[in-house]
Amino acid sequence: MSSTYDVVVVGAGLSGLQAALTLDAAGLRYIVLEARDRVGGKTFTLRSPETGAVQCDLGAAWINDSNQSRMWALANELGLETYVQNTAGNVVVQDFDGKLVKFPYGQAPEYPSAKDTRSCISIRDEVERLSLTQSPSILSAGPYRQHLDSMSFETYLRNAKVTEKAFATAQVWTHAMLGVDPSEMSALYFLEYCAAGGGLMTMRSDQKGGGQYLRIRQGMSAFAEGMAGKLRPGSVELSSPVASITQKPNGTVSVTTKGPLSQTYQARKVIVSVPTPVYKTITFSPPLPPSKTAVVNRTRYGFYTKYMVTFSKPFWTERKLCGLAQSFIGPVSVFRDTSLGDQSYCLTCFLGGQFGRKWAAQDAEGKKSSVLKQISDVLADGQDVTPWFIEVHESPWMEEEYSGWGCPCPVMPPGVLADGWGALCAPADNLHFVGTELSPVWRGYMEGAVTSGEKGATDVIAELSRDEVKAKL
Predict the structure, then answer these.
(1) What percent of the chain is modeled with pLDDT above 70?
(2) Which pTM value belongs to this model?
(3) Binding annotation
């Protein structure tokens, strides 16, 4: 059986759904093919099977109401209720020797060595400056951009002669933001990632304007569910993984799904809105351009897991802690309080890079006990927290094929981004590519996804209009 459309959208994450909404507004015929049995991609709210109450967000979990204008508009449009991230109280740093350094949110930690304190502040400020400076901008083609892409972020840090404590601080950033060690991506990639989110300080902030300012009481899945609900009924096909995309000599594209209900769809254009590692699961005919494939084959996820632990009481707030903590020894690199004030108190633990890989080698009980021990040490003054433990949930992304076996955003090693960005984002004849990792703003975030999806659909609409004009001449 074959169906014909103006556009087939592959993937019903936020970028694909936004692309479909833009196509819908333009009056085009479209279909969205989603491999999973749900919409939302890497946004996924776990809800209680008994009550439907939100338990936790296994994927993306925050927006803000100032510089994430698309997500804020969607939240209002869909009538979603926001909850401000808690920053009242002290932040904690777990040092190399396990000792704790506590300080008010918004200030810098003061270490026993003034040299360490100065080095941490200096590298933070330098990364912020580079990610925001307009002249010379890291986003402008030229020798400066090439130079930053020629080295790993670790080499960049070593060249800056940071102390080991400052290096560990930067490693906390890369673990929590991308799940990689500083050695695993180019300096340019990390700096550009920060620039896309308004700078390192904005991306790391839990306060107004920051990357972790607002959560949604209904859960982040409410965004995708609400967006899908605005589309033409029947326009989203779930459990329809795409097996092949074939561009034909007559200018049409054939998209075939796999599985017991395999179906083929014909279209004038296709918008591919899956993460780049997922491209390898689709047979493209003809193959994607070598310039694009060369970059796609070098994008990779790090090790990144969110481990959400629920307790019967917020023992950290009783100790005048806000729940934000970071560690130089792991296994958890960053903790955040993700309670929703409903008598169920939650800490989200970010495990990434080498710390996460080592932690993941344990069995389920070992993983849980090591995290609870660290929570006890860091947020409970050493008191055993197991009496208050209720349950734990671990994000599934590294085991999920349709996310590309990872989260939150693929990174690039040295020597790829500076010359490869244009090819990565470029269309391939009648195929257009969207997704948060291809966004110039808030890359890796939901805001980046919807921005990219809208731009991709707008480009497709413009091309179809030009084609119709040509056909009339």
Answers:
(1) 98
(2) 0.95
(3) 15, 34-35, 242, 350, 437
